[in-house]
TrEMBL record:
<feature type="domain" description="HTH luxR-type">
    <location>
        <begin position="270"/>
        <end position="335"/>
    </location>
</feature>
<dbReference type="InterPro" id="IPR050471">
    <property type="entry name" value="AB_hydrolase"/>
</dbReference>
<dbReference type="InterPro" id="IPR000792">
    <property type="entry name" value="Tscrpt_reg_LuxR_C"/>
</dbReference>
<dbReference type="Pfam" id="PF00196">
    <property type="entry name" value="GerE"/>
</dbReference>
<keyword id="KW-0378">Hydrolase</keyword>
<dbReference type="GO" id="GO:0016787">
    <property type="term" value="F:hydrolase activity"/>
</dbReference>
<dbReference type="InterPro" id="IPR029058">
    <property type="entry name" value="AB_hydrolase_fold"/>
</dbReference>
<protein>
    <submittedName>
        <fullName>Alpha/beta fold hydrolase</fullName>
    </submittedName>
</protein>
<dbReference type="InterPro" id="IPR036388">
    <property type="entry name" value="WH-like_DNA-bd_sf"/>
</dbReference>
<dbReference type="Pfam" id="PF00561">
    <property type="entry name" value="Abhydrolase_1"/>
</dbReference>
<dbReference type="InterPro" id="IPR016032">
    <property type="entry name" value="Sig_transdc_resp-reg_C-effctor"/>
</dbReference>
<dbReference type="InterPro" id="IPR000073">
    <property type="entry name" value="AB_hydrolase_1"/>
</dbReference>
Length: 335
């Protein structure tokens, strides 16, 4: 699957980069804190999530101002600014769309659906909250904000441990580098502060779109109690609480999250295979079991080394393993 990059320009000159993938009715995906359309597409775990969501629909994602491919601006972060950026992307569609907000994108999606009821067919909220000041104690919030501002490297490491506690050390290191590549420390702090300030409790009762609230029961970044606030405040909303501790939607059991979301949106839900791997992935797993490096796998299969690395990472995530050694042992036992 390929993504197509484009951009929109707001009235004040703010440039917002957005990407589309797949064909069908639009699914606008409002991402969380920090994003990068190009680097996120290159991150094996994140791309696997989008490729699983996109079949049968047109997945639309965007980088908020100051993140990824969207240049920074002098304008301060606010809910109004968030809604203006979402509105500019939505205007390119020219039709009602499904709307999915994850993490900080969830309260933004709530406010949009409440203010623009005719534009949203169905609403999905993952890992979100109604009141940002209830995510953690005030002293904890101030310490985290201060750490991000004063030492962005250490701050990104700490937040990665909170966002993806189930990931192995190498994956967490990659995610921390990814966050630092998404924005400056100043932008990261401003957006994190906004996430703590968002309060959409007044919008909940105004949402008219059929709504699904999805949350992991052990989410360390957003307490599951906030998911219940969202579901109870939106009339007729469904609540699905999944097992897991990871806040990032593409960490942990990504497949079950995708199944729940696609079923709610009326899209086909792929059946789980016994091992969950494609024929191509089984071929890669066999080469891993033979002790091949990513470079050797690439040569044997006639692909580039990055693609080989992506295959191995997807296999590891799909099987819930932490290392290549586990893949090798699993394949040997299976054979």
């Amino acid at each position: 699957m390929r993504q197509r990059l484009d951009r929109v320009v707001l009235g004040d000159g703010t440039v917002v980069a957005y990407a589309t993938a797949g064909v069908g009715r639009p699914l606008v995906y409002v991402m969380g804190w920090l994003t990068h359309l190009r680097l996120g597409w290159e991150l094996a775990a994140e791309r696997a999530l989008y490729e699983a969501l996109a079949p049968g629909c047109r997945l639309v994602r965007y980088d908020r101002a100051g993140c990824g491919l969207s240049p920074a601006v002098e304008r301060p972060a606010s809910l109004a600014f968030e809604l203006e950026q979402l509105g500019a992307v939505a205007a390119t569609l020219g039709e009602p769309f499904d709307l999915m907000g994850t993490s900080m994108g969830a309260p933004v999606a709530v406010a949009w659906a409440a203010q623009n009821p005719d534009s949203v067919r169905r609403l999905v909220l993952y890992g979100g909250w109604a009141r940002g000041d209830e995510l953690s104690l005030p002293a904890v919030r101030e310490n985290v904000l201060g750490l991000v501002e004063a030492h962005w490297g250490l701050g990104s490491d700490v937040l990665t441990d909170i966002f993806a506690p189930d990931a192995d050390r190498a994956t967490r290191a990659e995610l921390a580098r990814y966050q630092r590549a998404c924005s400056t420390a100043a932008t990261a702090r401003a957006l994190l502060a906004l996430s703590y300030e968002l309060d959409v409790t007044g919008y909940l009762g105004r949402v008219r779109s059929p709504t699904l609230v999805v949350h992991r029961d052990g989410d360390r970044a957003a307490p599951v109690a906030q998911a219940r606030v969202l579901a109870e405040g939106i009339g007729g909303a469904q609540l699905a609480v999944l097992p897991g501790r990871s806040h990032l939607p593409y960490a942990g059991d990504r497949d079950e999250l995708v199944r729940v979301v696609r079923r709610f949106l009326g899209l086909s839900v792929p059946r789980r295979r016994a091992d969950g791997l494609t024929a191509r992935q089984l071929e890669v797993a066999e080469l891993v079991s033979q002790g091949c490096t990513n470079r050797e796998i690439a040569v044997r299969m006639g692909i580039d080394e990055r693609s080989a690395e992506g295959h191995v990472e997807r296999i590891r995530l799909r099987l819930g393993f932490r290392s290549r050694a586990q893949i090798a042992a699993w394949f040997s036992e299976r054979r």
